[in-house]
Amino acid sequence: MKIKTMSLGPIQTNAYIISNDKKECIIVDPGDEGRRVNRYIRENELKPLAILLTHAHFDHIGAVDDVRQAWNIPVYVHEYEQEWLGNPKYNGSAFFGLPPVVMKDADEVMKEEMTLTIGDFVLDVLHTPGHSPGSVTYYLKEANAIFSGDILFYSGVGRTDLPGGSFDTLQESIQDKLYVLPEETIVYNGHGPETTIGFEKMNNPYV
Which residue from 149, 143, 205 is spatially nearest to 177, judged by alpha carbons? Predict the structure, then answer.
């Protein structure tokens, strides 16, 4: 299993391309610079299977259509944010006075916690609201890793002052869904460097 981190766009949002020995891959949060994402896929002769969104804020979805159309693959999002893809008010691009971010509807809407099997990839979907109501974390046991979006950062947590955010809910999500995972679990988050569950349990000042 290989995990490629790409920091994209003006906010340097982390996108992840997870690939296996068959050169199949899944893309998590292609937030901007779709050409760059597609170029990496082509140059490494990968076979994309799906796009997984941790949530639908503008800086995590900005290249969704570019990547989806290039490879004809489905996009997954939680049901609480399915309308955000096409609505600048909801996805935050209007909130920050940026050019409107408008993407097509998701192909797959996740309505509950579940296990996703996509090709040979098996991911547990954990509903982790707080930063936004439909935030999810993808747990890839095979790689001992989670993809947490803007929930848990290195010595930090996601902001909760945007519509639908709640600091109390964010803390509950981290404590009840993430801190129960093995301490060696690697946290691939939406901004900044990776960390581990064990490090955050010992050092994160916000939880």
Answer: 149
Q: How far is CA 22 from CA 3, 16, 44, 146, in A?
A: 14, 17, 12, 21
* pLDDT tens, residue order, the chain (207 aa): 999 999 999 999 999 999 999 999 999 999 999 999 999 999 999 999 999 999 999 999 999 999 999 999 999 999 999 999 999 999 998 887 788 999 999 999 999 999 999 999 999 999 999 999 999 999 999 999 999 999 999 999 999 998 899 999 999 999 999 999 999 999 999 999 999 999 999 999 999
Instruction: Please state the pTM of the whole predicted model.
Output: 0.97
Nearest to 139 by CA among 168, 182, 97: 182
Domains of the chain: 2-203 (3.60.15.10)
